[in-house]
Each structure stands twice: as C-alpha cells, then as structure tokens.
Design brief:
globular; alpha/beta; Aspartate Aminotransferase, domain 2; about 15% strand; four-stranded antiparallel sheet; Aspartate Aminotransferase, domain 1; seven-stranded mixed sheet
Length: about 400
C-alpha cells in the first residue's frame, strides 16, 4: 500500500502548494477537493492585478501603449503557456470572453447548416450550459433542436456518427465528462468526425490543465474552455479558445466580429469592412479585460513552471490512490457502500455514488474541513489536483468517509 506521507515528502511538485491560498478553519488548512469547480487563488494573483491597477492609475487609457508593460501586448503573454496546455501552436490560441460565449461565436463560424448537413451530435446529459447553448443556437437558425441535436454516449458514439454521417454537420464533445470524470479519446473522435465529413469541436472546461491535450496534432477544428477551474484564474475568469491554423486566413468564413479581431496594423484607422487578424485572434470581439488577464497570467506562470506532463502524472496518481482507498472501504465492509463512477480513463476528478445517507454524509464533509461537490441523486465529486493537493489529504478524506459511512 502506498505511504501517503512518504509520497508527499518525496513529491517534486510539493512546493507548489505554497503558491496558493488554501481555505482555513480554526487556523488549519482545509482539504479543498473542488479544483474541478473553482481553482484556488495563487498568492501572486493580487500582485499581478495590482500591477495593472497601478498602471491604470498612472496612465489611464494610455496604459495600453506606454509604461513598463503596455496592455496592448498583454495577450501575447498568455498564448504560449496556454498552447503548451492545449497542445497547439501559440497563434492557434485566443484568450477572450467566457466559455459559452466563445462556443456561440465559434459555432457561428463552424456550424453552417444546409439542406444536406444540419445535424449536431453532442454528449448525452452534457453540462447544462452546453445544452442551452446548442438549443438556442439551433433555434437561431430557424431549426428544431429535437430534429437537429442527437445525443450519444462515448460507447455508442461511433455507431451514432456512422448512422447520421450523411446529415452530420458538427460534433461537439467534451474532453472530460463533468459528472463522471471520464476522459475521452479526442483524437479518435476527431478522426471519426472528419471521416464523416463533419466538423469536430470540443468543450475542454474539465480537461485543460487536467489531462494531456494535443489539439493541433489531433487535427481538431476548434475548442473552447473556461479559466476558473483547473486553471485557477478566478471566479468568472477569462476563457480561451483554439482554432486550427488552416482556418485563420479564410476571410470568407462567417463570424460574429468585433473591432479587436480586426487586422492589428490598421485597427486604429477605423475603416468600414471587417478585415480579420490571420490568427485565432481574428475571432476576438471586444477590448481585452486586462485585469482578468492579469489573474490568468498569475496562474499560467505557475503551470509553466510546474510543467503539464508532471502535473498530469501526479494528478492520475492522486485519483488512482483515492479510488484504491474507496475500494478498500467497500472490501472491508464486505459490500458496496460507495460506487466509483469514474472509469480508469480519467484526470483528477473522481465521482462517488454513495449508496446510503449520501446527502447527510456530504454535508458532514464540510464540518470535517473537506470541500467537495454534490450532484443528484447521491454523487459526491472530488478532485485532488496536483498543484496544491497532497496524498495525505487523499488519505485523510478516505478516513473521514470511512467514519461517516459507518
């Protein structure tokens, strides 16, 4: 059996925990297993934001162009570290808006229904925001979601794609299932979708910063994500998107444009007629929110220092250890008290279906200094993330669960 104390002692990533503000109770660190919902605040976030605030106070709007760090170039600081996390080229990355807004913007470009191809395949029971986005976007085209949107599970997705191939326009899938924590094979999905002659897009809200991604190599068409979960960029933090470079120079591609996506060299001439930047930045709409970008940069700098491959490896070991301990509880009880819903293909998150008194047990976790997440009908989601969680915390969580479930 793994010794959690020894693992933490010899963990080369252990010092990164000290870069975050861990919630306290009675002067002690609580166990925060909610990085899949809102990541913890880096200690450096306030100083990064204060740099922008100081520049604003000193220069006003001229802070975009003068000072030690002009804001006009701030976006460039974010694309390189994000490209490492997404497995993309820096010019295929754009930081903007929020996740669902970006999905609407990219569907405006990549979902172009016609009489032959109009169907969308998505994950069954996808995160509600994605469901609402697809429903309303389809209605915007004057179509009926009931005839356009086809839901599938990962198990039947190949069959569903083949069944609807002639009418298929788009597959929008997640990188990691928000409910179960299942990690999907995005490379295989992309290949199947392209073979059917359709567009492959991905919602990476629970994937980026959590699992290995190689979007450019996989030839994915587009992807979107938020910045506040595993990326630790603050509540409602700025989001991002990936658009494969083959689309960048195609000015005939429909898009819902704004002035910040206009060609940089002539942006301030203010001419009529939209002329997009020939990178993913050509999908930008509005003036960038530099304060949100500063919070984002504080977190991304930590990711760059730690290395995503190191984090993915540790994250898997943390979740494997958690599953081992839960199975041990069941084994010693001689029956299944807790069902692990998360398959072996996963990232940090583990979803636990508690068979009896689930809500009561969940509420008592907080009383025991543990942050977790509740989903009906009796699922407790926990995500020990590698940047600030420890093997000892995983062990202590299992001990509390053992006590509560008894």
């Amino acid at each position: 059996m793994l010794d959690p104390f020894q693992e933490d002692t010899h963990d080369p990533l252990s010092h990164f925990r000290n870069k975050f503000l861990v919630p306290q109770k009675n002067g002690k660190d609580q166990i925060y297993f909610l990085g899949n919902s809102l990541g913890l605040q880096p200690k450096s976030t306030s100083s990064y934001i204060n740099e922008v605030l100081n520049q604003w106070s000193q220069y006003g709007v001229e802070g975009f162009f003068i000072g030690d760090d002009p804001w006009i170039n701030y976006h460039d600081k974010l694309t390189r570290p994000l490209s490492s996390l997404a497995g993309a080229m820096p010019h295929e990355i754009v930081v903007m808006n929020h996740l669902t807004i970006n999905l609407h913007l990219l569907l405006a470009s990549f979902y172009r229904p016609n009489k032959k191809r109009f169907k969308i395949i998505c994950e069954a029971n996808a995160f509600p925001s994605d469901q609402y986005m697809l429903e309303t976007h389809v209605r915007h085209h004057g179509l009926d979601p009931a005839t356009v949107i086809v839901e599938a599970t990962s198990a039947d997705l190949p069959e569903i794609i083949q069944q609807h191939a002639a009418q298929l326009a788009l597959v929008l899938w997640s990188g990691v299932n928000y409910y179960t924590g299942e990690k999907y094979d995005l490379e295989s999905i992309t290949q199947m979708v392209h073979k059917a002659g359709a567009i492959a897009g991905f919602d990476l809200a629970h994937a980026i910063g959590n699992i290995d991604l190689n979007l450019h190599k996989w030839n994915a068409d587009f992807a979107c994500w938020c910045g506040y979960k595993y990326l630790n960029s603050g509540p409602g933090g700025i989001a991002g998107a990936y658009i494969h470079e083959r689309y960048h120079a195609d000015e005939s591609l429909p898009r819902l444009a704004g002035w910040w996506g206009y060609d940089k060299s002539t942006r301030f001439i203010m001419k009529k007629g939209f002329k997009p930047i020939h990178t993913a930045e050509g999908w930008q709409v509005s003036t960038p929110p530099v304060i949100l970008m500063a919070a984002h940069k504080a977190a991304l700098d930590i990711f760059e220092e730690a290395g995503i491959q190191n984090l993915v490896q540790k994250g898997k070991r943390l979740s494997d250890y958690l599953i081992y301990l839960i199975n041990d509880i069941n084994s010693k009880a001689g029956k299944s008290l807790i069902e692990v819903l998360t398959p072996s293909s996963k990232g940090c998150q583990v979803s636990l279906l508690v068979k009896h008194n689930a809500r009561q047990i969940f509420e008592q976790l907080m009383e025991n200094g543990i942050f977790a997440d509740w989903r009906e009908p009796g699922v407790i989601r926990v995500a020990p993330v590698p940047l600030y969680n420890t093997f000892t915390e995983v062990f202590n969580f299992s001990e509390v669960m053992k006590k509560l479930i008894a």
